[in-house]
Amino acid sequence: MRKIAVINQKGGVGKTTTAVNLASGLALLQKKVCLVDLDPQSHASLHLGVTLGGGETSIYDLLCGESTVSDVRRQITPHLDIVPANLDLAAAELELAGEVGREVILRDRFEAEDSNHDFMIIDCPPSLGVLTLNALTAVDEVFLPLQPHFLALHGLSKLLRTIDIVSKRLNPGLRLEGIVLCMYEASTRLAAEVSRDVEEFLVSNTSQSSVWSSARFFQTKIRRNIRLAEAPSFGQSIFDYAPNSHGAEDYLSLAREILETSSSVACSGNDTAAFSRN
User: Fold this and answer.
1) In whole angstroms, what is the distance from residue 18 CA to residue 147 CA?
2) Domains contained in the chain, CATH given
């Protein structure tokens, strides 16, 4: 099973949109996917029409209670499941503060579960606290959604440092697998310039860590598309809401690209940077 964390501590860059629609795209391609909503805002859950009522279990009960993955997991389609969140998850950071091994609870819960999923995709919160550490210890790959904007580099070094520290101390197999450009407008000079700046930043810092030495820009770029912004309010993925839109086309293309990289992921010991020019 490929385990992927979709992460960026900067809000509004397409993180949840990417997590939900990538998971839905892979499911559409007949891959069995488990989407994990690890954000207290529960936007991934709401995006797929899951609203938890009082007494219903969520990922909070998985992290802070005795619930198992099977207890909290819900089926969205025959190939897509979700471990949903609600606002209770906001209390998890505080409740886990004194817990021994708090950074690996999520990993341990999933390792205790027999799973037939091909992918686990975690939608991380926009912060670098205990919840994000749980995600980074539970996965092998990190996908970084990035808006081509000059503020894109803001906080990037801190995020990479966090990934590096987790790799050294808690999860030696962790790596930054790729960068997904979201809200992309090919006609603007800004998009090309920011893409180049991010590439240069990562290449210039490659010697500091092997965690991102083989990272790359995905060839698929997610174009700015109003349908992607509308879909969550209907509780649907882009494939259900607007299957003929550019958003659906782009996320299906990204899902196909990720499937094509499966063989290269299996032999990811290569330390040569593999950035694609944009």
Assistant:
1) 12
2) 2-266 (3.40.50.300)
